[in-house]
Amino acid sequence: RLSEDNIGTLTAEPSSLYIVHILNDTVGDHWEQVFCFAGFVLDPDRAELHGPDGSAIRLRPKAFELLSLLVTNNRRVVGKQELMEAIWPGIHVGEDSLFQCIREIRTALGDTERHMIKLVSGRGYLFTADVTVRQEASELPHAARDIPASGAGAT
Predict the structure, then answer these.
(1) Rounded to whole angstroms, how far apart are CA atoms 149 and 129?
(2) Which residue, among 30, 29, 3, 7, has the nearest Cα to 20 in the 3D structure?
(3) Contact 126, 77 (CB under 8 A)
(4) Fewer CB in a 10 Å sphere around the end CB: N or C, the chain?
């Protein structure tokens, strides 16, 4: 949110106008929750999943949302209807869409034995891996930077 405290001044350069944007030093670091399980690292804020070797694992957006929901509800059976309403809000989808996402997640995690994501017959899905939560600071720049104002001419 912009205020007088964190906006610099407008300066005119010979060829273009620049907005000098200065971040206020009182703005603290932004903390993100990162979830770790079975060597994997899930970062919902950045929509990233990293494998035990640190490599990025690509998931389609709905599969990533589903994995995030299961991980944040680990050790709790999450009903199929609850999952579908959370991942596809206001849209009627069949259970096949849910099954496809589960299959994609299991493949990405190498969960061929279905130890991490278990189907609880008639109830929903259970994420069984131990999950730890880390708080990581995402760095915010603490220096001034010039941002060209689009379409501005010299004044």
Answers:
(1) 49
(2) 7
(3) yes
(4) N
Residue tagged 């309403």 (tokens)? 85
Give strand ranges (E) for the chain: 10-12, 17-21, 30-37, 40-43, 48-50, 78-79, 117-120, 124-127, 132-138, 145-148
3-class secondary-structure state, position 16: coil
Tokens, residue 26 = 């009182």
Which residue's entry shows tokens 């190498």? Answer: 110
Number of neighbouring beta carbons within 10 Å of residue 116:
21
Tell me: the pLDDT tens digits for 99-150? 999 999 999 999 999 999 999 999 999 999 999 999 877 654 443 333 333 4
Q: What is the pTM of this model?
A: 0.69
Q: What is the residue whose two structure tokens read 């640190």? A: 54
Identify the residue whose tokens are 């199929």: 80
